[in-house]
Specification:
This protein is α+β, with helices and mostly antiparallel strands. The protein has helices at about 25-30, 55-70, 75-90; strands at about 5-15, 30-40, 95-105, 115-120. It has a single domain, classed as GTP cyclohydrolase I, C-terminal domain/NADPH-dependent 7-cyano-7-deazaguanine reductase, N-terminal domain (GTP Cyclohydrolase I, domain 2, 2-Layer Sandwich), CATH 3.30.1130.
Length: about 120
């Protein structure tokens, strides 16, 4: 078997947090959604059933929640902190595609979500 790519994914993780440019956004809070595609070589885990041969998505989730708990004015800043933390804490991560959106942003538009998307490599 020739493995071309292996990824860990977390899709639309819902997190209540206090990010926003307006003071009221940081006071009241809102729902945010985080999606991740993490490039990491877990080919050993395909044949050896050991967590040490992959990146634990439960551990990734914990780090994302910790970073989302720190308020930021900009989603770009919160996303940057998440990327930095994941690359720092998980040395086998080679790349990350992150989407961070805010539900019903207060901008006077009928919009379900707005956000940012970043692709980063180590």
């Amino acid at each position: 078997m020739n493995i071309i790519q292996t990824q860990i994914t977390l899709n639309r993780v819902k997190i209540f947090a206090h990010h926003g440019v307006l003071p009221q956004e940081r006071t009241v809070g809102a729902n945010f959604y985080v999606s991740l595609k993490i490039d990491t070589d877990f080919s050993k885990a395909l044949t050896c059933d050991e967590l040490s041969n992959t990146v634990s998505y439960a551990d990734v989730y914990k780090r994302v929640c910790e970073e989302m708990a720190t308020p930021s004015a900009l989603l770009e800043h919160a996303a940057g902190r998440i990327l930095s933390r994941l690359f720092s804490d998980f040395p086998t991560i080679e790349g990350i595609q992150l989407t961070l959106t805010k539900e019903n942003p207060p901008m006077g538009a009928d919009c379900q979500e707005c956000g940012v998307e970043i692709s980063a490599r180590r």
